[in-house]
Amino acid sequence: MYFRGILAVHLKSKNVIPKHYEHIVVVSICVFVMGFAWSWGPLGWLIPSEIYPLETRTAGFFFTVSMNMICTFIIAQAFRTMLCHLRSGIFFFAVWIVVMGTFAYVFLPETK
């Protein structure tokens, strides 16, 4: 996205983003979060409802939600340290969206 480039350019030299770019970065991040919430976000609830059989659905949802919360906690704890070391490079991990899309397209045909 556009804000990654702005962060990469301005955070390397002075660690300060010019005022006229601040609003662009905040709006870009908000648009990214909205896009995730409308596209990939619900898949954590949709895919388990389709792949677990009725007999094990409750246990499957328990495992799915538990792992989701644990992984979210780990990411939240590691994000700040990663941001300090990788700076704007942390946002280039968005390549995983392509990997997730390919996985869903190839291995989860019922969710197309």
Automatic annotation (TrEMBL):
SUPFAM superfamilies per record: MFS general substrate transporter
**Residues in Major facilitator superfamily (MFS) profile domain copies:** 1-112
One cellular-component annotation, GO = membrane
Annotated GO MF terms: carbohydrate transmembrane transporter activity; symporter activity
Entry-linked InterPro entries:
MFS_dom (IPR020846), MFS_sugar_transport-like (IPR005828), MFS_trans_sf (IPR036259), STP/PLT_plant (IPR045262), Sugar/inositol_transpt (IPR003663)
Q: Where in the cell is it found?
A: Membrane
Q: Which UniProt keywords apply?
A: Membrane, Sugar transport, Symport, Transmembrane, Transmembrane helix, Transport
The family assignment reads:
Belongs to the major facilitator superfamily. Phosphate:H(+) symporter (TC 2.A.1.9) family. Belongs to the major facilitator superfamily. Sugar transporter (TC 2.A.1.1) family.
**Under what name is this protein listed?**
Major facilitator superfamily (MFS) profile domain-containing protein
Q: Which species does this protein come from?
A: Capsicum annuum
Organism phylogeny:
Eukaryota, Viridiplantae, Streptophyta, Embryophyta, Tracheophyta
